[in-house]
Amino acid sequence: MRKLRWLRAPGIFKLLLPNFVWRYNTNHKKVYLTFDDGPIPESTLWTLDMLRGKNVKASFFCVGDNVRKYPDLYRKIIEEGHVVGNHTFNHLKGWGNNTQKYIENVIMASEYIDSKLFRPPYGQIKRSQAKHLLPEYKIIMWDVLSGDYRQDISPEECLNAVLKKVRTGSIILFHNNVKSEKNMRYAVPHLIDALLAEEYSFELCH
Ligand SMILES: [Zn+2]
């Protein structure tokens, strides 16, 4: 579970990588809902319908190969007014891949995903990789990890953990992948209702 420890402890990264966006600087009650790893038929369409029903916009960090497989879902994300970002073509781990291979994979994804936003899968990126991407991309991290992919927490625990951590300017990370579906489908609509009741607005990553 070493990987998870890193994902939950962005403090050290913040010091090492100050050019990344971890949270938006604002005095207003704004939050930034993000979904990684889609688009996939199992949950992206559901996510879009749910967001439309609540009149909320979000940012989708897409895997290039999924956009290649499901171009209609990708188009629908954009048509509905959401924002897309690049999440590599094959969901590569930055630490396990050399910089050239990593950058080539991002470029391959850019042929399918029209965006100047990038989020590294697993939050893993080497300094050399970031250096290549930063002139072209804004690298969007997060300050609230929902843990929706965790099989050891219930949907209610997932929701409560996010509610506890959310603050002004928070970037909240959920997933459009199969293992996150159960927690995500419960937590996101309840989270939206709770935050709207507290007069938060949902903004797009930029
Ligand atoms: Zn991912």
CATH class: Alpha Beta
N-C termini distance = 32 Å
Series of H and E elements: HHEHEHHEHEHEEHEHE
* Strand coverage percent: 5-15%
Would you give an account of this structure?
It is a single chain. With 206 residues, this protein is an alpha/beta fold. The protein has a single domain (2-202), classed as Glycoside hydrolase/deacetylase (TIM Barrel), CATH 3.20.20.370. Helices cover 42% and strands 14% of the residues. The protein contains 9 helices and 8 strands. Strands 1, 2, 3, 6, 7 and 8 form a 6-stranded parallel beta sheet that branches. Residues 1-9 have low confidence and may be disordered.
Give a concise summary.
The chain is of the alpha/beta class. 42% of the residues lie in helices and 14% in strands.
Layout of secondary structure:
Layout: H1 2-8, H2 11-16, E1 30-36, H3 44-54, E2 59-62, H4 64-69, H5 71-79, E3 83-86, H6 99-110, E4 117-118, H7 127-133, E5 138-139, E6 144-145, H8 155-165, E7 171-175, H9 181-197, E8 201-202
Parallel strand pairs: 1-2, 1-7, 1-8, 2-3, 4-5, 6-7
Helix pairs in contact: 3-9, 6-7, 8-9
Pfam families: Polysacc_deac_1 (PF01522)
GO molecular function, one term: metal ion binding
Keywords: Hydrolase, Metal-binding
